Amino acid sequence: MTKIKQINVPELLKELEEHLTSLNYGQEPTELYQPIDYIMQLGGKRIRPLLTLLAYRLYKDDHQSILTPASAIEVFHNFTLMHDDIMDEAPLRRGNPTVHERWNANTAILSGDVMLVKAYDMLLEILPQYLPKTLRLFNKTAAEVCEGQQLDMNFETRDQVSEAEYLEMIRLKTAVLLGFSLQLGAILAGASDEDSQALYDFGVNVGIGFQLKDDLLDVYADKAKFGKQVGGDIISNKKTFLLIKAKETAKGKQLEKLDKWLETSDTKTNEVKVKEVTAIFTENAINTLTEKKMAGYFEQGFSQLERLEVQNQQALQTLKTLTEDLIDRES
């Protein structure tokens, strides 16, 4: 019997980082290619390509053979961030100036376009028998991410957004790429269609749960551990799950107060606004409601893993542990 190689997540991440660093996006004009190197060197958790490698390791040991396709997902993800930052007029990304701030918006658009092209180029390293299916699924996922971003922008100009609309938006904008990352690893390892789909469904469900967790942390996180401004979503009137449920449940004077704060644009009152809106959330048990919703998605996700027929149980446990650590994070 072939001995199964042990999985070391820090080692996988190190291999990924070295591979990403070795990529050559192009040289001239430097104004086009330097921004790509810049955003890729800003770091990040590299969760998506890591999930691809872990899904592959459920069935095969030679994950080095798929480092380039796995890295393509990270390149695509950073392309979406570069363009999102332009649309959001965001000044910072991971504590550093965004590409459009350091260079300009036109350069950021063009550099992002090249990143998308590079991601396709990297996917061409996939074995021919898996390439057509993979590209179709990638194209579907890429379009859905754009749909989610457009919905998110649409919500900014709407007074009312339903819970179902919000959950669909975060499924598209965030969760489907996590699902595809896992599905990609399974496909490249030759897993069954049933297992590939189960891993995709696992990724989508936990992805929705992760976004709900982010919504909750933005309001209730320990400021010392959070790493960014607590209450930022409240200050910007972002239509998160918490705000949507608060508008559904608040009544009378409480609803009047919430509406008053949503109409306030005076930045001098931000601290009071965060405090009072958070109090409304707590009084209506919105934090508990969000935790319950999150738990439902996480439970639904983990149930998908019970359907798998994997070769490496240690890899499965590693995937579960990594996900649980992300669920339990405080920042």
Structure description:
With 331 residues, the chain is mostly helical. It is 72% helix and 1% strand. The chain contains 16 helices and two strands. The chain has a two-stranded antiparallel sheet. A hairpin with a 2-residue loop joins β1 (92-93) and β2 (96-97). The relative contact order is 0.11.
Brief write-up:
By secondary structure, this protein is mostly helical.
For the largest beta-sheet, the strand count, sense and barrel status come to:
2 strands, antiparallel
If you average the pLDDT, what whole number results? 94
Strand order of the largest sheet: 1-2
Strand proportion: under 5%
Q: Outline the low-pLDDT stretches.
A: none
The end-to-end span amounts to 43 Å
* Structural class by secondary-structure content: mainly alpha
What fraction, in percent, of the residue positions are helical?
A: over 70%
Please report the number of helical segments: 16
The total count of strands amounts to 2
Order of helices and strands: HHHHEEHHHHHHHHHHHH
The coarse silhouette is: globular
Rg (CA only)? 21 Å
